[in-house]
Amino acid sequence: MKSLNMASAVILVLLVLAGIVASQALYTVDETERVIITQFGRPVGDVIDEAGLKMKVPFIQTVNRIEKRILVWDGSANDMPTKDKLYITVDTFGRWRIKDSLQYFLRLRDERSAQSRLEDILGSETRNAVAKHELIEIVRTSKDRSPEVDPMLADVDISTLLPITKGRQSIEADIFDAASGKLAEFGIELLDIRFKRINYNESVRQKIYARMISERDQIAERFRSEGAGEAARINGDKERDLQKITSEAYRKIQTIQGQADAKATDIYARSYNQSPAAADLYEFVKTLETYQSVIDSNTTLVLSTDSDLMRLVKTMGAAE
Amino acid sequence: MHNSHYGWRSDAIERRAIIARFFESHDMATQRGAPDLSQIPLPRGIVPLAIAGALVVWLLYSALFTVPAESVGVIQRFGHYHSEVEPGLHIKWPFGIDRVTLVPVKRQLKEEFGFSTPGATFGDQASAPNQWVLETTMVTGDLNTALVEWIIQFRIEVPFDFLFNVRDPGDTLRDVSESVMREVIGDRTVDEVLTIGRQDIESTAQVKLQDVVNKYEMGLRIDQIQLKNVNPPEPVQESFDRVNEAQQERERMINDARGEYNKAVPRARGEADQGIQAAEGYAIQRVNKAEGDVQRFNALLAEYLKAPEVTKRRLYLETLNEVLPRVDAKVIVDESASSVLPLLQLDTAKSRVEQ
Asked: Which end of chain B is more exposed for a tag (fewer CB within 10 A), N or C?
């Protein structure tokens, strides 16, 4: 019973030892990494690129895992001047990966130092590129784009797209070209570098805002003036139309009345002038009609006994 | 969170942590220890049985996994990509030999820029609120500034690429999206950005973003980019409002003037027509009257021609007969009287006596 216990204890110890050795000798490589085996700190053998279960010499050799995926370099936002002396805050980022794992491992050892090297090189290349160009070159990309214009603002004099000669992508490419050679020495392949954010520095911002405000005020004035102008035009139309309408009506009225008067006069004339007797009668009748209207209660009538009417008052004698 | 990436051992456990943060996923491969049975006092003989039982439970727990309907499971054997499995219950090699990562390929994922909606299930859906202003502030192609909020909607199309090609795909997508959006905004005027150019910006940015994503083989498909609030910066906002006001004022001025026009002109037209109608009435009346007068005169003339003297005398006397009674003061004087003046005084003397 005791020897059995001893035997099982030995087996147990051996099993544990075997387990420890196995755990030191076996290791896995993920799809996302490569492995460099070092022996007392010195790399041995090839870089292991294939994922899976691998074996090494236990205890002596160490597994160093190197990232295989595309990595990010996220630059810190820095203030820098452009060629036209505008202070802007530039935030860039880049993509990179470890191309030469051994070189990378030997020169940088870990990702922290890689990031700081990237920051040094890309940061200064970015600064150089920005200082060599005017702001608009970093803002715009395409050279030949003409902006759409709101028809309401079509003839307002507002700032439009400013012309460029290089453009953002081309400057990004310049930085890329300048930096990728330097980074290759560290086994790093730079995949790209892009401007993430470009903003006006606080000191510039107020000026930009002031310009935007004055531009908007100008547009507002334009609208007001357009409104007043259009209203004046409509008022003018109104005046013109009113004058036209009333004067045309006046002309028509006078014409109609004149024609009617002429026609009536013609009718009268033709009748009253048809013969001397008619003219005589007309004059006589018209005179009598005048008496009708002239003589009223206030009239003092002095009648002579010589008159046709009063002849008989003086003498019975009939008219001679 | 970036600090953890700088470590030399960016191994699988770290990646799994990121993926888990990414999709609230439960990684089936996470090793969990067997229940600790040593504390429980049990009769002899039961212990080996219990250990065996626990081992079986552990084995099953470690070997079985389910893939939810919206996902696929990516199996890695000793770290090596092995296969993808469809939704359902599956068996894998236990004890960490096979590892499964769930990738929600059918879920539409969203990243928001400049704001955040609650209930995000995806770690990189929105940035911290203190980043929002920086995220949205952009310089336009006429060197103005605009604040642009937007979202991107995307899907994971190729799980292998998504997991193994790029570290932090969510963060990468955010960076690329910000960069692309600024590139597009930088080629437009502030008026295009704020008003008429929105759709154009959305579609252009989507194409450009998809290009970059394809270039990195991130395994993503960009479904949509939508602009949300697009505003001028706060200090400038007021002047943009003034433009809107001025625009309203212009419309109002024009409408008022049109109102005045419409108030006056149709009325004047009506009044003109009225005058013309009245004139026509006058014309008809004038002619009719003339014709009537003439008819009457002609009738009289016919009688007159038959006996001119008598008719004349009759007309004369008839008229006087009508007229004379109206006259109060009638003075008849002899033809030989030298003056009528003294006689005219009679009238006033008579009225004085009557008083």
From this structure: C
Which CATH fold would you assign to the domain A71-146+155-200? Tetrahydropterin Synthase; Chain A (3.30.479)
CATH of residue B166's domain is 3.30.479.30
Taking the CA of residue B140 and the nearest CA in chain A, the distance in Å comes to: 7
Top pLDDT among A15 and B13 is at: A15
Measure the CA–CA gap between B176 and B208, rounded to whole angstroms. 10
Extract the tokens encoding B336.
């030989």
**Phi/psi at B118 (5° precision):** -70, 160
Span A89-136, pLDDT tens digits:
999 999 898 888 888 888 888 888 889 989 999 999 999 999 999 988
Rounded-to-integer distance, Cα B39 and Cα B30, Å: 25
Count of CB pairs separated by less than 8 Å, A with B: 378
CA B185 to chain centroid? 21
What's the whole-number mean pLDDT along residues A259-268? 92
Under an 8 A CB cutoff, do A249 and B190 touch?
Answer: no
Residue B353 in any domain: the answer is no
In terms of domains, do B116 and B139 share one? yes
Contact B147, B232 (CB under 8 A): yes
Interface test with A, best of B5, B132, B175 (most A CBs within 10 A): B175
Q: What is the DSSP string of A112-164?
A: HHHHHHHHHHHHHHHHHHHHTS-HHHHH---SS------GGGTTS----PPP-
pLDDT per residue as tens digits for the range B238-277: 998 898 899 899 999 999 999 999 999 999 999 999 999 9
- At B22-31, the pLDDT tens digits run 554 444 434 4
Distance from CA of B184 to the nearest CA of A (A): 8
Across the interface, which of A139, A265, A300 has its CB nearest the CB of B141?
Answer: A139
Q: Nearest-CA neighbor of B194 among A223, A195, A152?
A: A152
3-state helix, strand, coil in chain A (%, to 5): 55, 20, 25
Question: CB–CB of B330/A301 below 8 Å?
Answer: yes
Q: Last residue of a domain, which of B81, B103, B125? A: B103
CB B197 within 8 A of CB A161: no
CA distances from B43 to A1, A2, B49, B50 (A): 20, 22, 11, 11
Q: Distances in Å between the alpha carbon of B329 and those of A259, B326, B343?
A: 45, 9, 11
Tell me how many domains chain B contains: 3
Looking at the partner chain, which of B164, B243, B252 has a beta carbon nearest the beta carbon of A32?
B164
Cβ pair B137:A199 closer than 8 A? yes
Rounded distance, CA A196 to CA A193, Å? 9
Work out the minimum CA distance from B276 to partner chain A, whole angstroms. 5
B217 and B279 share a domain?
no
Between chains, do B252 and A227 touch, taking CB under 8 Å as contact? Answer: yes
Residues of A in contact with B334 (CB under 8 A): 304-305, 314
The 10 Å Cβ neighbour count of residue A147 is: 18
Contacts of A195 in chain B (CB under 8 A): 179, 182
The pLDDT score that the predictor gives to residue B32 is 45
Per the CB < 8 Å rule, is B239 touching A159? Answer: no
Buried b (16+ CB within 10 A) or exposed e, B29-45: beeeeeeeeeeeeeeee
